[in-house]
Amino acid sequence: MTLRPILIHPDPRLKKECAPVPAITDDIRILAEDMLETMYDAPGVGLAAPQVGVMSRVIVMDCVKDPEAPPRPMVLVNPEITWASEALNVYEEGCLSIPEQYAEVERPAQVRVRWLGLDGEVHEETFDGLWATCVQHEIDHLNGKLFIDYLKPLKRQMITRKMEKLKRERARA
Ligand code: NI
Description:
Elements: H1 26-41, E1 46-48, E2 58-61, E3 74-84, E4 88-95, E5 98-108, E6 110-116, E7 122-128, H2 129-142, H3 153-172
Antiparallel strand pairs: 1-2, 2-3, 3-6, 4-5, 6-7
Bound molecules: nickel (II) ion.
Nickel (II) ion (NI) binds near residues 95, 96, 97, 137 and 141.
């Protein structure tokens, strides 16, 4: 397993729609393992393939909060939202591609998601709480959408400028 560098916003690869995965191959299995390792290392609760520069519809997540509870690493290939609740929920979101910036985003409180597993089978599950927020946030990444796109333009521009500055500092280091 290899840690992969995480792209920082703004980056054109974070604004593009990703391609469906035609079949589960060894490349996809390796990508998923690397993404989980990269996510746990960061640490974060979710990561999408474009964040490591791979323009394929793959996301990983583990929203188990209780440190005593067993981890639940999930890999979702070609995830699709098949149902969303009318009830909404507000969460303070962050993103590994937008480090140390957080903002409240309103999304459906529950979603049903269908995806292809690494086992080659189609899975479907209803998510709520942090899991629901996370899966929607990660699927957005596959469509070139970031959580800051839900914010007012001024707030979004402020965060983007901070990230530009961060990238300049990192490039100089
Ligand atoms: Ni994100």
